[in-house]
């Protein structure tokens, strides 16, 4: 849809935080061999439902090193709730919910109170915006006292700045000066509202969770100095004016989901970072072009146009301006697209970008359970249409006594190929493997990793319907991934794992590795095809019903009892309208991995997505994030002060992302 130009309006390709680009590479879609395609299509004609039901009834055939005797199924003892379009959070009978840590909550330094007129510097001591992936790190093993660590994916500038009042700004818009420059303090505030929050929270004697002022409390932002490690560190790819030796950069951006390492550190993913960069060069090389940076003088929030021209803002223009790479920021985008390791227990630690986990639009990362003496294995999805699912296998074995992040610096990155017959293979992205040779344009390991997407194209991986979060079943070792949607997939591009053309609703795939998580072969099936009652399938091959319909699975977590928690992100551009109206506001459901039963557990307020979920170790307190409430307020309504959501404060308040605290009235286990 075309809008009239207005302050801060940018190209929609930069503005959409969820799905900014598609894989335009020419490697073949899986199964895209003419004869195979023709025979399979004739098989599918008129019988898609039967085919899908068959694929979904596939039992995972490999015996697994992790599969014990028949694993116990979890209980889903709550009463499913209906869909909702109300500006509130609903949970089942017998549950309590309240919001804490809204954007702007003071946590460190001079503890500046939340206010629209708070400064950019204040924001560096306050909870950021757009809460996303999250983990609870207990202190001394406590279920009532720990560090809540969460990502702040992006921002809505109109809800950050007092100067935005009265302007016709949509959810991507921002105030700017007549000449197109930006106010420095606004840019600082926006950078500081990104990143990660580390905040100590504790339940008092009444069970109420409170923020605790604590030495661990910390904001990591779009400006925090960070080290790069692994094969790309110290190479020419990362040389900038700020870091002539290519080992350092500033900040992390668009942190979507997260991961927790076996040595208890936190990894923040860098997802849609590419949109933040301008680049006026006529020729854009693949290290940027394959990630969506094209010739343009605009970035998502025009930070490179900060009025002062300060170095930390100018760097978001990646144009060649100096005589060499150490005199400009032509390589700055190459310092983004990584997984960032943060040690929440050491507030003085420098975050580290781990380059061997690959460079793409990392949604998040999920580690397989670590086994003493075995490699460390981590899975990560690249969330864009037709992108891939990856896994990293460490070279060195896990040893609990000495394990640390250096395990992520040596190993092998693989990309997944899903075969139509329910088998799959991991293709190594390493020098000399799968066509990754200098003749094919891959000079060495650093070149492969900085160009991860191009390497996966070359290897012939399966183009997926926007891989989002992953989770590992603690009993069986099965790995689940959400595939949120892909409305651009055409009929000729469908395959067994991405079976629907114009896929509006998404699906969840799962697989079992052949031997161990470090192996190179797996068996897969589809856990659920999401959708309405006319276009969905559960594990038993039946359509979803009133208690279970959902669309666009995104957040995913499997709790210690094996409940599969599914969170939805129907885009704010379509939610509560057309084919999506039946789903209401974004929601969270729980599923039984054995039977495939799914029940709706929570519905969120207006305009938001539900993302990020963790419980305390006793499973009696659950934390869930609500991101971008009110985002469906259109520009004219914003100008008139007519917001569609005032959550969580109510009244006439500006809507703010916040964290839900969910408990049971009887003190029981959440979801049981
Ligand atoms: Fe940030 Fe892919 O959701
Ligand atoms: Ca999303
Ligand atoms: Ca997400």
TrEMBL record:
PROSITE patterns assigned: TAT
One Pfam entry name: PhoX
Region (Disordered): 1-21
Superkingdom to which the source organism belongs: Bacteria
UniProt name for this protein: Uncharacterized protein
Organism of provenance: Franzmannia pantelleriensis
Lineage, uppermost ranks: Bacteria, Pseudomonadati, Pseudomonadota, Gammaproteobacteria, Oceanospirillales
């Amino acid at each position: 849809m075309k809008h009239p130009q207005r302050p801060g309006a940018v190209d929609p390709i930069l503005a959409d935080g969820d799905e900014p680009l598609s894989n335009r590479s020419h490697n073949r879609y899986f199964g895209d061999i003419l004869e195979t395609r023709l025979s399979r299509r004739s098989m599918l004609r008129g019988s898609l439902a039967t085919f899908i039901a068959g694929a979904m009834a596939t039992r995972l055939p490999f015996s697994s090193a992790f599969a014990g005797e028949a694993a116990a199924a979890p209980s889903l003892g709550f009463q499913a709730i209906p869909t909702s379009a109300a500006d509130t959070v609903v949970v089942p009978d017998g549950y309590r919910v309240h919001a804490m840590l809204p954007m702007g909550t003071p946590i460190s330094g001079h503890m500046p109170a939340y206010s629209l007129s708070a400064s950019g510097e204040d924001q560096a001591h306050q909870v950021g915006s757009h809460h996303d992936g999250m983990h609870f790190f207990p202190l001394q093993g406590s279920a009532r006292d720990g560090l809540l660590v969460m990502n702040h994916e992006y921002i809505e500038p109109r809800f950050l700045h007092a100067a935005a009042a009265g302007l016709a700004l949509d959810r991507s818009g921002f105030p700017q000066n007549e000449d197109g420059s930006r106010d420095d303090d606004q840019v600082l505030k926006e950078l500081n509202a990104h990143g990660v929050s580390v905040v100590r929270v504790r339940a008092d004697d009444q069970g109420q969770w409170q923020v605790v002022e604590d030495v661990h409390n910390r904001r990591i932002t779009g400006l925090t100095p960070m080290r790069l490690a692994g094969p790309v560190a110290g190479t020419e790819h990362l040389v900038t004016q700020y870091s002539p030796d290519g080992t350092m950069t500033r900040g992390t951006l668009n942190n979507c989901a997260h991961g927790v390492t076996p040595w208890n550190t936190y990894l923040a993913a860098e997802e849609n970072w590419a949109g933040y960069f301008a680049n006026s060069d006529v020729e854009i090389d693949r290290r940027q072009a394959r990630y969506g940076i094209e010739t343009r003088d605009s970035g998502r929030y025009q930070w490179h146009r900060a009025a002062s021209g300060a170095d930390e803002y100018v760097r978001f223009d990646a144009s060649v301006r100096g005589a060499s790479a150490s005199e400009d920021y032509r390589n700055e985008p190459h310092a983004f697209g990584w997984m960032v390791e943060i040690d929440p227990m050491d507030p003085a630690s420098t975050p580290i970008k781990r380059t061997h986990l690959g460079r793409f639009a990392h949604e998040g990362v999920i580690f397989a359970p670590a086994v003493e003496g075995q490699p460390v294995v981590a899975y990560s999805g690249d969330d864009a249409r037709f992108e891939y699912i990856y896994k990293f296998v460490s070279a060195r074995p896990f040893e609990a006594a000495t394990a640390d992040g250096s395990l992520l610096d040596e190993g092998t990155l693989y990309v997944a190929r899903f075969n139509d017959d329910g088998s799959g293979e991991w293709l190594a992205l390493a020098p000399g493997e799968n066509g990754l040779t200098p003749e094919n344009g891959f000079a060495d390991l650093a070149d492969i990793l900085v160009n991860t997407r191009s390497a996966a194209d070359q290897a012939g991986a399966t183009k997926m319907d926007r891989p989002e979060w992953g989770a590992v079943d603690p009993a069986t070792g099965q790995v689940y991934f959400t595939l949120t949607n892909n409305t651009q997939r055409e009929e000729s591009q469908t395959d067994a794992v991405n079976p629907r053309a114009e896929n509006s609703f998404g699906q969840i795939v799962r697989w079992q590795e052949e031997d161990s998580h470090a192996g190179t072969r797996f068996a897969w099936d589809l856990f659920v095809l999401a959708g309405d009652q006319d276009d969905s399938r559960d594990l038993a091959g039946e359509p979803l019903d009133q208690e279970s319909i959902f669309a666009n699975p995104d957040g995913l977590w499997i709790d210690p009892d094996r409940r599969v928690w599914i969170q939805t992100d129907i885009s704010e551009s379509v939610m509560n309208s057309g084919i999506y109206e039946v789903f209401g506001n974004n929601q969270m459901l729980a599923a039984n991995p054995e039977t495939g039963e799914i029940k709706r557990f929570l519905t969120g307020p207006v305009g938001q997505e539900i993302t990020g979920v963790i419980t305390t170790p006793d499973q009696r307190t659950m934390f869930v994030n609500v991101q971008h409430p009110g985002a469906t307020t259109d520009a004219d309504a914003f100008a008139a002060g007519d917001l569609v959501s005032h959550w969580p404060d109510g009244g006439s308040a500006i809507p703010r992302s916040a964290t839900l605290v969910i408990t049971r009235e009887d003190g029981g286990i959440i979801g049981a």
